[in-house]
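Input.
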Amino acid sequence: MRGALHAVLGLALLASLGAGGDALHLVSLDDRPVVLRAPEAPGALVAHFWATWCTSCMEELPALARAADRCDPAAVRIVAVDVGEPPDVVAAYLGEHPLRLEVLSDPRGEVWRDLSGAGLPLDLTWTATGRETKLGARSEAEWRRVLAELGCDPDGPSVPTDPGS
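Output.
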């Protein structure tokens, strides 16, 4: 019964988000508003929700960054979205653990809660045909597979990324 309820809730979430769906209203680490919208085909957006206190997030972030190195940022945009922490905490963490990903903030956790709010890490994959979420950490091999399905070259040369874009 519980599994069926989770399936129904998951389908309801996907249906409510639908193809295209609403924009995600986030904030840059320097407190500028950032609005993420559905990418045009064949592009994709991957938003990885994390926090500095989340142990599995800290293990996964470098794996995601290495896998993301194989993506053309014009085709697949990958952002790391810190949930509910002050910018100085995130900046201090990034000072000690540099990350080659665009880092944004969901300062009050509102976007994260609207997507699931069930835990971290949480991944949102958004294409022109719809959005889906996945709760829980992924290995680097899993990230390479997921990103390859979105159009990244899992074995290709590293693509230079600009984390400030």
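The longest helix spans residues 2-17.
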